[in-house]
Amino acid sequence: MTTALPLTGREIRLRTAPDGLPRPEHFTVSATPLPSRPGPGHVLVRNQHFLVFPGLRTLIGGEAAGVPLPPLRPGDALFGPAVGEVVAAGDGSALRPGDAVLHLLGWREYAVVAAADCTPLGERLPAPVDHLSQGSSAYGALTRLAELAPGETVFITGAAGAVGSLAGQIARLLGAGRVIGSTGSPAKAERLRTELGYDAVVLRGAPASVAEQLADAAPEGIDVTLDLVGGEQLTAAVGASRPGARIALVGALSGQFSPDGDGGSAPASVDTFRLVNQGITLRGYRGADHPDAADEWKDRFGAWLRAGAIRFPYTRIAGMDRAPEALQGLFDGRHFGAVVVEL
Predict the structure, then answer these.
(1) Furthest CA-CA distance within the chain
(2) Would you indicate the residue range of the signal peptide (predicted)?
(3) C-alpha angle 339/250/59, rounded to 5°?
(4) Which among 129, 137, 316, 331 is least surrounded, fewest beta carbons within 10 Å?
(5) Would strands 8-14 and 27-33 be described as parallel, antiparallel, or unpaired?
(6) Which of 46, 132, 48 is nearest to 89 (CA)?
(7) Residue 2 pLDDT more than 70?
(8) CB under 8 Å to 289, separation ≥6 — which residues?
(9) Neighbours of 134 (CB within 10 A)
(10) Are strands 314-318 and 27-33 parallel, antiparallel or unpaired?
(11) Is the pTM for the entire model greater than 0.85?
(12) First and final CA of the chain: distance in angstroms?
């Protein structure tokens, strides 16, 4: 018996361009027609989970120059990493109904995707949702740029986010002697210490400055910084760095979470004299420059998950209608770990 394919599917579109941070009123849920059968080389995927990620601010804000993703204009459907099940396959596709895949057309119930743009999930990770983890960039930055050595002290900014909540665990598994994180929430700081094993947490907005707290948390200095935020926290990291320290830049959340600007810049004051005098390196991490890192990460992540050595922290949001609210919650700092919408 052949199951009839849906005639329409719902998707979330940008309704109007926001002035500042996007809010739920800037989005709309629309029904869109689906093909009776995918075209050659394409598949129809029923999405099961998709990721809510801060880079959408940059794409919506129109400052996407140099970003390897297209900008989002009013009327466009949102997109992002998603996992789902193939329900129909066009001619010439190696995928078949029932296959579980990862692709970039989230924010919709059903996606028509080129088979070549789908990655079969396989058995490398225990659960489909694990494929939405954002640990690959943290792993790549710590192993390729920072070349973290056993016993070193690591500082991770934005430690309670999608990348940071994995980065501290990864640093420990790679042999870090002391792991320090930063966050803006006392409740998150407690979870970082008790659930994820951070040795100390710098609290943004506390009476003491980030630099003062970092000096107390690492009196002998920082060897490696994984910076996801920029701004004041990057400034403090440079000031606390030991001779020969390595700073890997992975994100720019201070710009993407700011109500000012369009999410495409994150200025920071950096003491270049200290960089030179202390021999500190500061480099940006791009996954495309290290294509082997993602594959290596997936193997190690799967092994660590099965051994119970690592956790994938994420906030589960039930139902696509709540996705715009989940995005607002991301900008407001309400979530811990990654934010995943479950359909």
Answers:
(1) 73
(2) none
(3) 60
(4) 316
(5) antiparallel
(6) 46
(7) no
(8) none
(9) 23
(10) unpaired
(11) yes
(12) 25
